[in-house]
Amino acid sequence: MNKKVAVIGVPMDLGAGRRGVDMGPSAIRYAGLQEQIEALGLAVHDHGDLIVHHASRLGRGNNPNLHYLGEVVRVNQELAALVASVGADGEFPLILGGDHSIGIGALAGAARLGRRLGVIWLDAHGDFNTDRTTPSGNIHGMSLAASVGRGHPDLLAAWGTDPFVSEADVHLIGTRDLDPAEREALEDSGRRLPKTEADHPGGLPDVFGGVAFSLTLVFLLLALSAASMLSVVWLMAALVSGITFSLRQRRAATPFLDTAPLKTSSGAFMMAAAGIIGLDLAAAVFVPALAQQELHFSVLLSGVALMPAAVVGAVLAGAAGVLVDRLGARRVLQVGLAAAGVGGVLIALPDLTVVRFVIAMAFFGFGTAFTLGAPINRLATLLYRKDQLGEALSLVAVARAVGLMVGPVVFGLMITNSGFSAPFWLLAVVSALGVMLLFQVPNWLQPSQVAS
């Protein structure tokens, strides 16, 4: 066994507001820590416990915002020295606490080994208070702040003379309970933080805002398709409803649209692709009429013209979900959009035959299976943190609905003016555009690429 684990006990409870966590080191050892480490093929060197004087023998000190400061600093200085020593000997320090104030000495000792530290702080609390912001005076709520050089000079003395941890190298996980000043300090440091309940007012998105948004879109589409004089009326109506929507967005407790997902280029491109997916779906409205006019299907037979697309879509829907994990959500979406584009080209080419029509419908089914549901939703889950996911998925649904609303009007106008081939050529072009836009969206994401 080459690697040796150095077990260091620190029975500290002076940094917390309640006594008792000083029993942690003995309880963890009693639970079979050494045996379990050795079962992993590692050697164990137990250095015993540091001496921590009991609260009953100590006074809280003169500073009401730094309880038991002297003893906390002394123990952390000893811990830092021991961690640095065992690390220099090639041992891996495993520190048993104890409250979180011992994080200062643990990190200080590691810093003395001369390497750049990356800190993953697993805690419901940020531990980023100082003596100026603490509501309790308990030092366990200041340990991370002290480790990056924030806090009272007497507490920072526990660190020593080595450089503090860089705030850019700290990542918090599980943080959910922050004091107001502590949250502000963490946000100033550039740390990404989860939203609080205050950030989530609750309730459904603004219904009136949703109505105003929908009416704005409807009036614009009516203006596009109406005669010149009537078009002006619809444009004025769209202006009024658009202003109403804008006011509701600003004043509603939960706006109809949360535009945070659009603040990154990846998010904006994904939403544009969602709109194109809706536009592709809208083409299905015209398939029965196309079958009647171009292929001379009966009304009854034209009603089942979409059957090839439905069958292929149902067969491939499960495969799309699996391929998302194998190929990545972006690539699956690109394949789906490309398939829809091929279907559009097959329909738009002159002299449409039944065979080519059935093949085109199969490609549309392929495209539907690879663009709806799992692929686009998975891409949203990759791009956005859990606390933003609801907003992102809502915006995806709205973007897709906009495409579904715009498509029939635009396609109908094109059919009226240029025949059935025109909208399907447009379908092919916008599908290709969607493929290109998605190249701007990462297929697999690193943590630094997740929207903040």
What are its keywords?
two-stranded parallel sheet; disordered C terminus; mainly alpha; three-stranded parallel sheet
Please, could you describe this protein's structure?
- The chain is mainly alpha-helical.
- Helix content is 55%, strand content 6%.
- It is built from 18 helices and 5 strands.
- The chain has helices at 24-30, 33-38, 69-88, 103-111, 143-147, 153-156, 180-188, 207-225, 228-251, 265-282, 287-294, 299-302, 307-327, 329-348, 354-371, 374-383, 389-418, 421-438; strands spanning 4-9, 43-49, 91-96, 119-122, 170-173.
- The strands form 2 sheets. Strands 2-1-3 form a 3-stranded parallel beta sheet. A two-stranded parallel sheet has the order 4-5.
- α17 (389-418) packs antiparallel against α18 (421-438).
- Residues 445-452 have low confidence and may be disordered.
Contiguous low-pLDDT stretches (5 residues minimum) are 445-452
| Computed structural class | mainly alpha
How much helicity do the residues have? Answer: 55-70%
Major sheet description: 3 strands, parallel
What's the shape?
elongated
Mean pLDDT across residues? 85
What's the β-strand tally? 5
End-to-end Cα distance, whole Å, is: 43 Å
Strand order of the largest sheet: 2-1-3
Rg, please?
31 Å
Strand content: 5-15%
What's the oligomerization state? single chain
Give helix and strand order, one letter per element, not per position.
EHHEHEHEHHEHHHHHHHHHHHH
Q: Count every helix, treating DSSP H or I runs of 4 or more residues as helices.
A: 18
